[in-house]
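Researcher: Here's a chain I'd like modeled. Treat it as a single chain, no partners, no ligands.
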Amino acid sequence: MIVFKTLEVTEIDSLLTMMKEFYSIDNYPFDLNVTEKLLLEFINNSNLGKAWLIVSNDKIVGYVILTFIFSFEYQGRIAFLDELYLIEEVRGKGIGSQTLLFIKAVSQKFSLKLIYLELEQHNKKAEKLYLSNGFEKHNRKLLKYKI
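Model: Modeled as a single isolated chain. Structure tokens:
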């Protein structure tokens, strides 16, 4: 059975371990101290979003993070599915799809109008997961400006 447990301050260490593993897949920079501070800020300000640990048979097997944004174009609050990570041993077992069903359900609770996400071009398994769960390719390009 899969349970989605709201992330609490006492569980940050579990999340940090998985985040480090997730970031290493694509060689993203990861600073433990900075990320811990960001998680504390995130948990303590519900306007920023929500994070959950994914638990299967009493074992933490992943996490998912939604961050909130306000959009005039979409007429209200939208979200960015900032991170969805599952440990290697549970991938391909339907937990990703269950997680997306959970995210869709809580999105109604938060009155979200849209969920954005990004994925690496090479991650065809993730793309297949998202497309098979109702996400669509967006016809716009995502650009960034780093400050």
